[in-house]
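Cross-check.
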Amino acid sequence: MRIKSLMMVVVLASAIHVSACTNGNQSVTQPSLDQSGFAGSDGTAGEAHNLLGFNYIFIDATDPTDIHHTITPARDITGHYNILRFLEDGPCTDCFSITGITPSGSGTLLIDIEVAGPFANPNFTGFDVRGIAMFNAHYDFPDSGLNISDRNLGDGQVIDPDGFTTLYNSSTLGSGPGGLQGYNKGSFATITPPDGLLNAYMRFITVDPLNTRNAFYAGDAVTVTYEVDMPDTTFVLGYALDASWLPASTTPVTDPIADFPPEANCPEPYMIDASATGLSPFAGAEVTIDVYDWQGTVSHSTPLIECPGLFSGSVSTTFNMFGPGFTRYTSLITNDLGGSSGTYHCLISVEDSENDPGGKPWLDLTSYQVVDIEVTDSFILSDVTPDSLNSASYEYEVSGNHLFVASNFNGVQVYDITDLSNPVWIKKIPTTGQSWDITVSGGYLYSASYGSNLDIIDIDPIESASVINNFPLDGATFGIDSDGTTVYASNSTYPDGVLHIVDVSDPMSPSILNSVVFTGFAKSVKYSGGYAYQAAGSGGLQVIDVDPPASASLVASVDTVDMCEDIYVDGFYAYAASNISGLQIIDIDPPETASIVNTIATGDTALAAAISGGHAFIANAYGGVAVIDVDPVGSASVIDNISLPGRIWECLIDGTTLFAGAFGVTWTIDINNPVIPSPLGELYYPGKVENLTVSGDRAFICNGDSEFLILDISEPQSATVSKFMNIQPTYAVEVAGDYAYALGWAGLTIIDISVPGSETVINSVSYSGSKFDLAISGGFAYVAAGSAGLKIFDVDPPAATYEVATVTTLHGAEDVAVMGTYAYVAEADTPDGVIEVVDIDPPAAASVVHTVTLPYSAKGVAGQGNYLYVANDESGISVVDITDPLTASLVSTTDITGFSARDLDISGNYAFVADYTYGLVAIDISDPLIPVEIDQLAPVGYKWGISVQGNHAYLACGPGGVGIIRLY
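Predicted model, tokenized:
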């Protein structure tokens, strides 16, 4: 509170339930138990609202160490229910009281107000009891004609109230039957009431887990604390207590929650929960509104938003979803009036269907909430991506109750697998390079980190796990294993591979004991019995004697015919996942004469192998996991196939649990009975993200290896993968209405997204050509199909989609934007970039009508107004004037940070570019002839695509997963 010489006057109107209605000087009697005499405050049983009683409360705050108050009843208030002497004489002499007034320490007062019910009889249970604080008000909402108090304008103000209402404000003085909706002046009612028309309130609710209707139980006492910012001068605070009540449906009342009709609650929505993002000159503010209404989701109108200073009038909102007990609406607010930096009050109003402003102007059945929007004129780019989304699955390791996942750009991700049906993400361990393979031994995790070589990570305890040493090795490390004191790290150095034998007995001071050159490309390596078995791609299996390390040497090479992708050693045999050859079993007794003894076709491309209990489990690319009985090895055969969607990349066995994974998902499978494996759980992450688009609370993710995922971005900073869809790998996606259109192996796939959580594929149309990008407009899909040109599909209705035209283009079509009756195709297979203008009116007769040459390959394209903006690879961005599409011309080219502009999105006066090598680049395009780079941010991964919504940019970061960047 501002400590000044101050006398605060509080005007109090307190409401409790009684039925006698007399002049203020008459005695009070307890209401009859049949409640037949009780009516609503306008004389009818229907509106539920009741205002009873009136007081002045004087608070002397001149001495902050001795703040005191006095209460003076107003005894002659015509038309109010007669409770005034009742409050003085009993049976309840302290049903209303101020129990404490203290400074908060931050310039405000904390006022504790207690309200007690006078009767123990549950027939007089109240509902939605609200204490309404009224001040003078100087912040106007001109469209609605309302005002609120604002401490910045010299008013008193309740800080963070539960809501706002116009009930009992000064404009309703004496209104309604008998004056019940106002402060009819009596002999003591001489103070001018506060002029606020829209006033803040706090709720008085009995604390009880069974109280599901905001009830105030008869005989209860509830205390609520108001934090009030005081003005600098003496002022009047009005205080009304509004209680909703109607006669019970069942009497006597034994269960207040069940025995009163729904109409006993307030008829208007009882709560509006609203939040808003910030607003900048380049992007609108997202406003989310949750409306809670006892009478259901259809008994109120769509919320309206009024923001003086940002735009004129009011705007409507859009239905978003039904939640538990609420209806969610959203709106995008824009700064149409060019308001400068600062805080702006926005009024949200939700009118009830029973409201009758013409017939009953004193009884406004509308709920209000005020949300503040911060306007800024600058960028504050920040990476808010949850660490769990910066992930792909390259290799696994299990230690105790923890699953460790090598996630390429994103280090090592750690999950708690105590409950295998529900793995829980714990943390991300950043590595100094791209983590390709990992192994755990003796409390340490060793990461084969491409670009930075061997990372040594202390994982005991897991909560503080971090890299404690990065040991440089020649080449790019792709495979790793350990026998406890020694690490075997296989690197690729053109034209051969190298196996480094590293002493890690002292993790802080590792040393190379020896290095052995082998033929082929370094893939996985396994140590067993003094030998290192190296899966070497086209070099097959390379066997290296590493005992002793000082004299380590290559002792055998086994030609696996096809690429040796992975190796597993068990007893006298090595099991090689050999690409299209399937599983090859190699006799390694002795290792020096290793040779293939059996080859088993697995039905697809074998990429990884794991052995347990005489059975081999082979990650079978798009064929799931093949289960092979390998005992005896001479008659090994496939006995089962675990069908899994996606490109199965890795297999790991821990006990009786198989971990099988693609880049975007890991399945846990019980293999106690290999013939009848039992699924346990699923773990999703974005994986290798090729492209994405954002719509509402969802991001639709194209994973080039693991198909299609949906991200819940209702809270961007805590976004999670909510669904994995088996539609084969996808590379581009757009959303229009209730459908998502994805390009991938299956061609053009159409997904019904109308019900979140129940997204369903409804059609898939194959076509010849690449799957680079697409645009949806007017019931047609326009597909950039590489060398196949521009493909046009009729997608209305989606279930009957068919190709209507193919437009031959000069070069490879990489992206397309549609504006009006023209499509603009970005082409890249040329030293100079090209934009081809295609007349699509009608789509079936589409043809190229103009060509614009650019300085470099055109990768991505987006349009706004009379201009087309092109992600122009090494040349940054180019701007094309399309005022007349038939004479479109290049008007500017701007170099930007980075070396390869791949995609872009436009929001307001800004272009946001995804640069493949750098990251997010923000460009001011308010003058298209002179674009100006104003900020940039470099999240992990290769940036392939971008989608901007509100104040967040969403980046497709390849093996870096998803990037979520807050723009301001």
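The two ends are 32 Å apart (CA to CA). The helical segments are 84-89, 256-259. Passed to J.P. for a second look.
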